[in-house]
Amino acid sequence: xxxxxxxxxxxxxxxxxxxxxxxxxxxxxxxxxxxxxxxxxxxxxxxxxxxxxxxxxxxxxxxxxxxxxxxxxxxxxxxxxxxxxxxxxxxxxxxxxxxxxxxxxxxxxxxxxxxxxxxxxxxxxxxxxxxxxxxxxxxxxxxxxxxxxxxxxxxxxxxxxxxxxxxxxxxxxxxxxxxxxxxxxxxxxxxxxxxxxxxxxxxxxxxxxxxxxxxxxxxxxxxxxxxxxxxxxxxxxxxxxxxxxxxxxxxxxxxxxxxxxxxxxxxxxxxxxxxxxxxxxxxxxxxxxxxxxxxxxxxxxxxxxxxxxxxxxxxxxxxxxxxxxxxxxxxxxxxxxxxxxxxxxxxxxxxxxxxxxxxxxxxxxxxxxxxxxxxxxxxxxxxxxxxxxxxxxxxxxxxxxxxxxxxxxxxxxxxxxxxxxxxxxxxxxxx
Amino acid sequence: xxxxxxxxxxxxxxxxxxxxxxxxxxxxxxxxxxxxxxxxxxxxxxxxxxxxxxxxxxxxxxxxxxxxxxxxxxxxxxxxxxxxxxxxxxxxxxxxxxxxxxxxxxxxxxxxxxxxxxxxxxxxxxxxxxxxxxxxxxxxxxxxxxxxxxxxxxxxxxxxxxxxxxxxxxxxxxxxxxxxxxxxxxxxxxxxxxxxxxxxxxxxxxxxxxxxxxxxxxxxxxxxxxxxxxxxxxxxxxxxxxxxxxxxxxxxxxxxxxxxxxxxxxxxxxxxxxxxxxxxxxxxxxxxxxxxxxxxxxxxxxxxxxxxxxxxxxxxxxxxxxxxxxxxxxxxxxxxxxxxxxxxxxxxxxxxxxxxxxxxxxxxxxxxxxxxxxxxxxxxxxxxxxxxxxxxxxxxxxxxxxxxxxxxxxxxxxxxxxxxxxxxxxxxxxxxxxxxxxxxxxxxxxxxxxxxxxxxxxxxxxxxxxxxx
Lengths: 431, 469
Prior knowledge:
The complex is a heterodimer. Chain A is α+β, with helices and mostly antiparallel strands. Chain A has helices spanning 48-55, 67-74, 99-111, 117-136, 149-152, 156-159, 166-171, 174-184, 200-211, 261-275, 281-289, 326-342, 347-366, 368-382, 387-396, 400-409; strands spanning 7-10, 16-21, 27-34, 78-83, 88-95, 190-196, 234-240, 247-253, 295-300, 313-319, 415-422.
């Protein structure tokens, strides 16, 4: 199947646009990615990028509070937004008749969101409930995405909790919101994506009609979040009152996802060689042969690959019984990495991994919402939405030697180990 | 903070030209016709094959009714599901995984009191291999002692993890409150039962219950549906029995009752779970009921979400939705809330139930949920996985692709009066029962003061991993 043509252009106010027509189902996806995530939020305001994402749904000049939800849903559509380390996205998926409405809704809040003290107070409460639900009242809440970064990283940007501390959230002011919007939510700092059932010329005209008069403001200069890799094994622990079993997360630094993409992809292949499927190396050894762990997984990124610039994190996580020491788990991990470092995986092993990657990329992009968001994120982070169509081939071209080199770089003396201790775990720690 | 000079919030919220009108809807293209086959194989397995060639993949779902009355059934069934794919006479566990990997494939299994299910996908070029593996495990899964032993241990550890999840605790409490000890309530087996399951029992359960007759296989993707039945006869024809897969005994009808406060000391958040009897999709009232549910709490712009989240900030998410079990259907309402506002959230949840019948959805509300119901059906069936899930949900209750294609017209025909009637008939507060799981010391006084709330026993998983080790 030939990949459909993407149409890419930039409007006069600096908004980058990606159009991905596909008539196979009568639905469209619309997304806006802003180039700001929780790594960019100000010190003392942890969780602010995510809190601000909530506020963007609370009304704008033409739309009363709740109108955004009502207009999307009463047009037959669904919507959401999410905050990542390096971007924040907003999206709708609707029957194709509602394309212009979706563009109108996104343009209106890009032009003039209604930021009010009442909505801010309300959404602070909602976000606190979200954190209680996903972190504080749940076993392994925030594991590892909130808990690992402060062990592996030193700078505020990389180390802090992207969900935020309650006292920071409660301290957020309307003034902070105004400054954040004017700094980061300009059209020149955003990518608009439309995918699905529409005519390109019609979409272009609608985009000009609704976004054309959003005033230009310069995009903020891009900050670097670079910091040196660790020079020793770093260690952290966390008491989890709800967790029944100990767990650990190992975090490593990995190649620059943007400027060393093939190096980055080698780590993704490595992650699959290690933990994807019953035949993978760590599953076979640590789950089935020895067995030392209940579950084990490896991967790139705090929420998945391709959603952050440098530095990005390679993680291995495991939940294990209390009578297995973490040293045994780590020793087995290091031995398997050592084997891969000295002997590259053969063609057959690579083929298994790349066939599964090809299928999972197809499957992900078969869902209109995922496809729309992937185009937007790749345009924003990589400057090239068409890379989405080439990823599977790039993955297939990764050599055994490259995977071997990636395994060799995952050194014990340059990583972070985070240990989750269940409540009442006295006597189970072998340290 | 980040910008040296910036506008005030008030300046940001207005422009010289002022508010603009909402654009009208454009023209809507129709959903594509779904070319499909719906037939029964010689072994009694119903097959629904649908062509959707958006990507070069194929999705397969198998649903095997899998009820059992035996006390050990839930544990044995869970071990069976975990070991079904761990080996046959022709392939061991690693070989199964390797063959699937080479076709970009995956197979997964799961079980609940109603059914055993298998979910699979692969590049469509790998379909013959995928079907061959399926046929192999259905007819020849070996359940070796070593694999059963190991999966049993993992399962015990996973049950420990699962029983610490507030949603699992709440679900278990709700099931008990609604259905007593009907087999449908045994969703997570007891670790002590899993511990004593033997390989022989697992093999016996496979022989007795992994049966094609009465089961359904759905296949969706880049396929020719016309050729699928013959391919399946070849791959699965050897999977045969005269007996039929075992369906769950009918669930008792819910008649409403008190809400049970299930104590969970130290919880920082409470789970509110309410439930009432409704009717299945085949009932003529279902489309109006569906719209009434959306208006109540079935989508974000619903009365419940606008009240307890957007107006009062009591919860991150509140939701109401249907649960279909064999021929039975209920509507379930759920919200997780902070301790301080739990009683107030329950009050508002009941208030909105009452109001739905007494102040029925307006014409605008009805139009909104109507468009949402039609549009979200279009969206959810626009991907292979979404379509496969929808078709399987329908097929398991005897419906077919036609029902899916005709449903938008049924929704379009619902009148406001019918929605109002469904709201009154099905959403009256007195029809509901349920649980609140949370810190009883903090919640008890306010919840019992509300009325129709009784305090129950502490919710704890009976075993912990520590005791197992």
